[in-house]
Amino acid sequence: MPQVDFYILTQIHTKELRDRFVCQLADKAWHQGYFIYILMESLSQAKRLDEVMWTFKQESFLPHDMYPDVAAYAPIRIGYTTEFSVENLGPQDKTVLFNLTETVPSFVQQFARTVEIIVNTEETRATGRERYRFYRRENYLLFSHTIANAP
Question: 130: helix, coil or strand?
Fold first, then answer.
């Protein structure tokens, strides 16, 4: 059964701070052997996250590329299109989608796990509730994590 983890960032109100948390979570998932696709709303947001990933840690960076702009297959891919297939990402049981959009992507069922990150704004909480209801209707295994102190 696919799993969805909702991370509620109670003290984060901006996408810039959210992106730092995304890097933390992606770093952890990558070190656990997951292949990660991070879906952004737009190319400009994807480029912003790309920059953050290069500078996330002083001593290293997160191995990533931009989809569909780069043909390489890094373990972390940042994308902004509504079309995606996990075929070239990694083993199906080790794939995770970080959905940083306001809707459930049409290809969500391809992933073993999905991460939804909710920043502390009324709009984001409202669209997060809609996505939660969708996953519940589709019988996903749901978890919620409240994060009080993130980077």
Answer: helix
* CA of residue 69 relative to chain centroid, distance: 18
Q: At what angle do helices 15-31 and 43-55 cross, to 10 degrees?
A: 60
Count of structural domains, the chain: 1
- Torsions phi, psi of 101, nearest 5? -110, 175
Domain that includes residue 143, residue range: 3-147
pLDDT means per 10 residues in the chain (151 residues)? Answer: 93 84 94 94 94 84 83 86 76 89 94 94 93 97 88 59
CA–CA gap between residue 6 and residue 134 (Å, rounded)? 13
**Spatial distance between the Cα atoms of 151 and 67, rounded to a whole number of angstroms:** 26
* Structure-token pair, residue 18: 């959210």
